[in-house]
Amino acid sequence: MSESSKSEGVLTEIDHVAIAVNDLDAAVTYYQDTFGCEVAHREVVERDGVEEVLLKVADSYVQLLTPIRDDSPVAKYLEKKGEGIHHVGYRVADCATALDRVKAQGHKVIDEAPRPGSRGTTVAFVHPKTAYGTLIELVEE
Fold it and tell me: What's the pTM?
């Protein structure tokens, strides 16, 4: 395997840690008052049924998520598990290549192909059942 093909699909950085919350504004206030965090981005992602806030922490983000619909995955997560860490987003150079690598290894994915994410990114999710219990989001900027 050549050096360039070894590096394809490799995680380059932590993009964000996503935290599911019931009250988005209260969670934002907590992070602002307690840690001095500032909102870097706020967006409603209709496709996923969530509103998100990104708080910048160095070169990464804390992503606060709250459902805008009762049938969204985050609403179901909150109902089942309560507030807390929902997933970890990792930056990749090429989302399609990274996703293909995951599938080639026989791991379960949620997204069969990359799709648009928030703030103009391309994303795909890896199922927690074959990722040691962690929902993983691959993020291409």
Answer: 0.92
